[in-house]
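PROTOCOL LOG
Step 1. Enter all chains and additional molecules of the complex.
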Amino acid sequence: MNLDINVSDKDSTAVVALAGEIDAFTAPQLKEQLLPLTKESGKVVEVNLENVNYMDSTGLGVFVSALKSTKENNSELKLVQLQDRVMRLFEITGLTDIINIDSTVRGGS
Amino acid sequence: MEPFDFIEIKVPAKAEYVGVVRLSTSGVANRMGFNYEDIEDLKVAISEAMTNAVTHAYQGAEEGEVTVGFGVYEDRLEVMVADHGGSFDLGKVKADIGPYEQSEPIENLREGGFGLFLIDALMDKVEINSDHGVIVLMTKYTQENKVGLDDDQISTTQ
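Step 2. Run joint prediction.
Step 3. Record the structure below.
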């Protein structure tokens, strides 16, 4: 019941690879690492959720605040490789309309 | 009265125990024969109720606990999540929940308002009582189309 957060830089893109569970306990750690990345103008922050097997509204909250920060700082947020269950939460809440989500490649197995 | 098994878990009102309750939920639901999708729904719904209890009820106070009760019935699981901390304004909370609407500017988007909305979307029935602390009572049936299945056995041509 932990979350591993691994940040690597690739040109102007910061790739944030997550593994584990995003809930009330781990979301604050994610927010702390993700938000500063979005403060850099022109930066693309790509979050890879391939190995996130559980997420709830606390995770949605982190991504919503990251999205707001990208609008303020002229950066970009992108979520990739979501597992079906995680994708479903973005769909139910209508957030797929405003967050850039690449769901062509699904995570999980 | 309808027979049922009852399981009660008390955990400290701290975020690190949300996952513990989630695992317990998964165990109870699995033993009842819920399918994978429904177990995942239950895990999210109960975690949301736990998160609310942990973050809202004991702001400022260090101590406190959350009680989770599982009522295991033949055809359904009832889960009660109760904190004994301060109550909140239920009307205000209800007014704040709902999916994101495209007409809303992103700046106004709430970051923590999806919890109760998700509970409502993922469970079959939800009741909230906020007289003394907050109690969330959630129900999920093991077979979603139970009524439809039973229909087959009832003659309607008499």
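Step 4. Note key features.
The two ends of chain B are 31 Å apart (CA to CA).
The first helix of chain B runs from residue 18 to 32.
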